[in-house]
């Protein structure tokens, strides 16, 4: 397949690919992109090339996922890797880990898949008992914006938050005036489903954003983390045909084999992933490159980047 | 399934559902949402309820899809309905219709599905000949911002365009200073794949945005329209495992049974759809309701709406 058909843009596509589902490690993607037989157009000017920036990064530009805060959602077709963000939802992260370690989720199911919105799992029969975890937690919609909370601000304007940026590789918003910070609802964000009451979510039902960022949910629901690998296992699920994308028949649901804390999984079975650090000069260069895409393909650089379009590359640990 | 598990939010979910894939007509969705046995929480205050606004709309709040500018992409699992936007890409719309009427696309395939980015179709073998359509067209990245170009501006800020709004039910950007307007890359936008040269896209390969809006593509590629129904047929396709989400093996591709212009299809086989008009008081109310969600579930109204989160309901013609 020749260039003419193959392309929207190259650097951009690779970027989106890196930012997104991550079928491959960044390294593998870069290797593939350099394969001359692949339908990838000319390499962009190095200064504006995400792949080169990633390739030329140093070990200090990456951090390993914290095993104690990483969950493996094991589905019939593979593993979804979730990183929890205890800086923003300490009590919910702890409760979800307690649920995981009780085996609460094992054998439950994905009960909902709504187009351009969320996939959600829960106990479809609502019969499973909770042993050690709590059934009532105060909401963690925002946290206090403290000096020790990491936050690398983007200069870009945002309609949903006075300031946006990244906190330890999570997309986040901040309101200095109100003294609050929160995780943003981007594609791949993981949140705690709740009913009408703020404190009605306990982590027994979680959802993942599978479409365009529903940022109106920010500060209305507790975000606990982010899918860093395996999004395609959730986004390609058949959509539920019931209201709100719930499956109407039990057999339409996708069973959850298990959810595990990475630290509890034998070393040989772990996904050994690193994520880009967001408090480095390299990350700033990556964002700059995405904000003003160069190379031959782009005719008009955007001069702006949306928080939820910032790539957060992962790679297999070296 | 009870409320506690069922919900992220209700009005919002319904809104997203309406805005998104549209398994059901709005009417059917509203009917389902009112079914007491469905896992849908209490109805929101009428003033802030998308479903009620849609239900209470008048015939003048809707327009039928223009049959001459509507394409049916027929896939093995169903029909994707695309509305072309000749106001913004007159030459490309015309050329694509010429290709359609030649039968150019019939029997071709979806060759690419990249996570959180695009699905794209083309002639995988690049052997099909073009008969009456053109193989070279000037780019239509922007159009002249003329007084007669419809544009209902949103008051919301946007990082990618000085002004955003809707032009005849299409999300669009505008730059009064430069005197230009363009269709925005939102989820469901349809664009003309091209190579490095601006004029290298002729419509023989088209893509649909399947993830978070890649607005950096705005003004860099010709957007010709928008999928108004059937997005789930594209977003749930298995992702290609080659670079940029291209399928590596021919058998992984999804065959295109045919693409037809709606006007050429027998009346009985047409999808009789109406889309919300974007130049009405009703539409303004819908956007207001989405910008500041009320009801019992929302604790903090966003006070802002992203162009690509504005719902554009469709319904079956009455």
TrEMBL record, chains A, B:
<dbReference type="GO" id="GO:0003755">
    <property type="term" value="F:peptidyl-prolyl cis-trans isomerase activity"/>
</dbReference>
<feature type="signal peptide">
    <location>
        <begin position="1"/>
        <end position="33"/>
    </location>
</feature>
<dbReference type="InterPro" id="IPR044665">
    <property type="entry name" value="E_coli_cyclophilin_A-like"/>
</dbReference>
<dbReference type="InterPro" id="IPR002130">
    <property type="entry name" value="Cyclophilin-type_PPIase_dom"/>
</dbReference>
<keyword id="KW-0413">Isomerase</keyword>
<keyword id="KW-0732">Signal</keyword>
<protein>
    <recommendedName>
        <fullName>peptidylprolyl isomerase</fullName>
        <ecNumber>5.2.1.8</ecNumber>
    </recommendedName>
</protein>
<keyword id="KW-0697">Rotamase</keyword>
<dbReference type="InterPro" id="IPR029000">
    <property type="entry name" value="Cyclophilin-like_dom_sf"/>
</dbReference>
<dbReference type="Pfam" id="PF00160">
    <property type="entry name" value="Pro_isomerase"/>
</dbReference>
<feature type="domain" description="PPIase cyclophilin-type">
    <location>
        <begin position="76"/>
        <end position="261"/>
    </location>
</feature>
């Amino acid at each position: 397949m020749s260039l003419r058909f193959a392309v929207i843009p190259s650097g951009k596509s690779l970027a989106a690919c890196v930012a997104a589902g991550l079928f491959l490690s960044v390294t593998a993607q870069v290797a593939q992109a350099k394969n001359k037989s692949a339908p990838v157009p000319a390499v962009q000017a190095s200064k504006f090339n995400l792949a080169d920036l990633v390739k030329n990064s140093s070990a200090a530009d990456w951090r390993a996922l914290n095993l104690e805060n990483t969950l493996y959602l094991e589905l019939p077709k593979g593993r979804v890797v979730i990183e929890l963000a205890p800086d923003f939802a300490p009590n919910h992260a702890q409760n979800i880990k307690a649920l995981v370690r009780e085996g609460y989720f094992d054998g439950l199911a994905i009960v909902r898949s709504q187009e351009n919105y969320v996939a959600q799992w829960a106990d479809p029969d609502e019969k499973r008992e909770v042993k050690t975890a709590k059934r009532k937690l105060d909401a963690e919609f925002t946290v206090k914006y403290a000096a020790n909370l990491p936050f690398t601000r983007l200069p870009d304007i945002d309609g949903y938050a006075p300031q946006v940026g990244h906190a330890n590789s999570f997309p986040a918003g901040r309101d200095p005036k109100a003294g609050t910070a929160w995780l943003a609802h981007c594609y791949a964000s993981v949140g705690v489903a709740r009913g009408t009451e703020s404190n009605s979510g306990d982590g027994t039902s979680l959802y993942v954003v599978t479409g365009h960022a529903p940022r109106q949910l920010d500060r209305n629901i507790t975000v606990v983390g982010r899918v860093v690998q395996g999004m395609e296992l959730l986004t390609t699920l058949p959509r539920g045909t019931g209201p709100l994308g719930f499956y109407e028949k039990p057999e339409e649901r996708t069973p959850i084999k298990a959810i595990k804390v990475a630290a509890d999984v034998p070393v040989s079975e772990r996904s050994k992933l690193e994520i880009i650090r967001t408090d480095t000069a390299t990350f700033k260069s990556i964002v700059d490159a995405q904000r003003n895409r160069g190379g031959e393909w782009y005719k008009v650089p955007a001069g702006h980047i949306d928080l939820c379009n910032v790539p957060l590359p992962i790679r297999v640990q070296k």
